[in-house]
Amino acid sequence: MRDKTVLHTLERGLRVLEAVAAADGTATAKVLSRQLGIKLGTCYHLLRTLLTGGHVVRLPGGRYDVGPRAASLNRHLQRRSGPSPELSVILTRLHNRTHETSYISGWHHGTLTLQHYLSGLHAVSVGNLDVGYTGHMHARASCKAVLAFLPEEQVAAMFEGVELTAVTPATIVDYDHLTVELARVRRQGYAVDREEFSEGVCCVSAPFFDDTGAPTGAFTVSVPTTRFHERRATLTMAVREAAAMATGFLRAGHLTVLPADWSR
């Protein structure tokens, strides 16, 4: 019983830490108590514990933010799960070319994880999408870009008999429809999300491959729907170039800037 109590306390402490991180320095004990359904006295106790350990810091006005210990943990996690420096350089190039919010995701252990992103000049809000996100693989352009190039039996094992949640009215919720969409992605070499994950936002994504020809991740750009239609061709070219550069690096071990007419 005592072990369960200790684990429960730890779980609540981690929930408080996550909520503090998400609040960007605006969290107070009263707000956290209401948000998480934790008694105010317990919330204060958890915050004091996190404060003593350096996981949070107290700001003026009774507000809390992430502390140096939590920031250090985040840096360690990013080093382990983030993209290599070379792939980060390609992401920066993609961002500089498009001036739109640009993402890199990595395929590992049957999951596509958002590893890093750079916000555009006019950043768009895409739900709860953040570094480490792995959900709704049927709705995200990056996931479709990778799934299209996996063995069909592997994709079937992941989705057949599994309910495909409607994230927006445009989300594909039928497995047969999804397989048709993946076949289209395979033919054209890139995937498009037309407000399937977030209303008012469209994305285009292209996969990159390792030296065995297996997909290992994808580069993605997201833009408001109103801007997507006029920029689709340019954005598609940019993400495909980024993916081709990453594939070249993974196969040859060095980065090469592609010629302007590389896709012809």
Computed Rg: 21 Å
| Major sheet attributes | 5 strands, antiparallel
Q: Could you tell me the number of beta strands? A: 8
Strand content is 15-25%
Helix segment tally: 9
Q: What's the average pLDDT?
A: 86
General shape: globular
The domain count comes to 2
End-to-end Cα distance, whole Å, is 67 Å
Topology as a string of helices (H) and strands (E): HEHHEEHHEEHHHEEEH
CATH class of the largest domain, named Alpha Beta
Query: Largest beta sheet: what is the strand line-up?
Result: 5-4-8-7-6
Low-pLDDT stretches: none
What is the fourth-level CATH superfamily of the largest domain?
Answer: GAF domain
Helix-residue proportion: 40-55%
Indicate the structural class.
alpha+beta
Predict the CATH topology of the largest domain.
Answer: Beta-Lactamase
Give the second-level CATH assignment, the architecture of the largest domain: 2-Layer Sandwich
Annotation keywords:
5-stranded antiparallel sheet, Arc Repressor Mutant, subunit A, IclR family transcriptional regulator, about 260 residues, about 20% strand, DNA binding, 3-stranded antiparallel sheet, transcription regulation, about 50% helix, 2 domains, 8 strands, WH-like_DNA-bd_sf, Tscrpt_reg_IclR_C, alpha+beta, Beta-Lactamase
